Amino acid sequence: MKFNYFKTYTVLIVAAACLVSMQSCKPKTAQSAAGGDASKSYVAPGKYDEFYNIVSGGFNGQVAVYGIPSGRLFRIIPVFSQSPESGYGFSEETKPMLNTSHGFVPWDDQHHIALSQTKGEHDGRWVFANGNNTPRIARIDLTTFRTSEILEIPNSAGNHASPFITENSEYVIAATRFSVPLDDQNGDVPINTYKENFKGSISFISVNPTSGEMNISFQIRTPGVNFDLSRAGKGKSHGWFFFSCYNSEKANTLLEVNASAKDKDFVMAVNWKKAEEYLKAGKAKKQAVNYAHNVYDENTHTATSTMKSEVLILDPADCPDMLYLIPCPKSPHGTDVDPTGEYIVASGKLAASIPVFSFTKLQKAIADKAYDGEYDGIPVIKYEAVLHGEVAKPGLGPLHTEFDEKGNGYTSMFVSSEIVKWRLSDLQVLDRVPTYYSIGHLSIPGGPTAKPHGKYMIAYNKITKDRYLPTGPELTQSAQLFDISGEKMKLLLDFPTTGEPHYAEAIPASMLMDKQRKIYKIEENTHPYVSKGEGQTKVERKGNQVHVWMTAIRSHLTPDNIEGVKVGDEVYFHVTNLEQDWDVPHGFAIKGANTAEILIMPGETQTLKWVADKVGMFPFYCTDFCSALHQEMSGYLRVSPVGSTVALHFSTGTNKPAVSTPAGAAAEPSTK
Ligand code: RUQ
Ligand code: CUA
Q1: Which of 521, 522, 459 is nearest to 494 (CA)?
Q2: Chain segment 103-127, per-residue pLDDT in tens
Q3: What share of the chain has pLDDT > 90, as a percent?
Q4: CB-based contacts of 484, cutoff 8 Å, min separation 6
Q5: What is the CA(664)–ligand 1 centre distance, in A?
Q6: Which end of the chain is more exposed for a tag (fewer CB within 10 A), N or C?
Q7: Torsion angle, CA of 217/222/225/226, rounded to 10 degrees?
Q8: How far is CA 398 from each of CA 211, 233, 414, 419, rounded to the nearest angstrom?
């Protein structure tokens, strides 16, 4: 089949016009915007949702959890951004989670998530999430809905094609959106030497099957293209990864024009089983790099950050048969693999059709060497040799495709603001529904797995316009829920979301709800500053540091009267929540703290650092309304001038007079 340049061009002009004006070109088949079926998305009071929807937060750097079909927001999980609500990234214990080779980086741009899989199906253990801006991958534990680990990715910039996961969670991958000079090269080069000096890289991050801990197993150095998205093969294509690449022009300025010059870009097919063989055969070269690996320990309730200094790199020049390029029209965004692993769907943002490639044909084309030359030494396979077919006239601006369990694909159309349902076998368009407006990603429960759960589909739209009460210049982001159980897609519900969602996955509630961690056992707490009972609370001075071993239990803090702190002292409040009941956190804050509260779960210890900046009286209190006497859960810290002779003194429930010590003498033993 010949690619129809003329047709492409016409659609392109229309698409470009829509893109430039950012208007949605509404499909002619638009059903009423006021549609919806309240009964199908209604979850009665006291009833649970059917699915957990785990949604990327985009520029808020967090991950959010919603219920489906209700669209109710349950939790925002802090990942790459500090959270004033929980103290994540503010407490001494969690600050190391945000350490990088650039130091403390308390924000990122979070686009994609991947749920762990076993045998191609969701296993409900972990969520992986990418940080684009300062390349990182995080792992969230689905028993705590907390971030357990963050791994920085060296040799990378714009970690967009990330994280995508193999069918047994052998690897999550991370590929560069921005090619750059590698970390051990001199990056101080003219930008217009892009073609010589800029390289891409794909990181294969192994996942420990028991603990989930991540480790960069190897990287593949690639030509200096921009990787956009990716999917692992599954079933028959297990052992392969597929990456959409744009900017095969290797432009370094005005990419809008210069990276859209060629009629086709590429889908890169990576044979990672082959890469593993090369790795075993010692083909990888060591490269000196510098990146952070941050792990949160649930017993010490503390994160540690370790700097790592080496990665193994495979160079395709030394590793034949590892990489292949499939031509793909035109500036492809998503590459998605169907549940059987046979079909690879590439969505060319500016293309007039959606090409669907066949894995079987890919294998044959490789065996037959059906090549069309090379690109930077990598064989380019003949387009027709791998093509299963093209979905004709799907709409404008295809971005992403998800799948149901019945052999259908659903593709989001950014420019024409619709979702198009089509059949994998004969590529016929079956149905289309409008989205309000300009849909980006879409998600079907289990859609990226070998066994989609189906039933619902959620659209994550980029533009909200008139769907909600307006709130000044910034409008809420809009998601839409569709029923896909029948032949026609039906709009059920609009719901607002936080941040700017990109990819999301949904998993049956039954897989997670009974595994939830309720408390941390106090006897397992090995935090160096834990107080396992009120009898262990104390205050100690080490130079200008004052450490407070404090406990919280309904409804008092121990100690609650502290004296003998002097201006300039750094006070560390190590607060242990002594409760052992589900859903009884206590919070802690003190006047003037230039950090957030800490919110301490039952059995946990967290530390708030506070500097005494002036003489006076500083109340502290519990910030979480924990009991009828919550307002009584408070205390005072007295700050005296530098050189004061007020001895360090702490108490709860007693009112002994404060002790003065002659200058130079040791403080009197404190009382409780
Ligand atoms: S992207 S709207 Cu950052 Cu996944 Cu496609
Ligand atoms: Cu503890 Cu309020």
Answers
A1: 459
A2: 999 999 999 999 999 999 999 999 9
A3: 88
A4: 404, 410, 421, 444, 454, 455, 456, 457
A5: 64
A6: N
A7: 0
A8: 38, 21, 6, 9
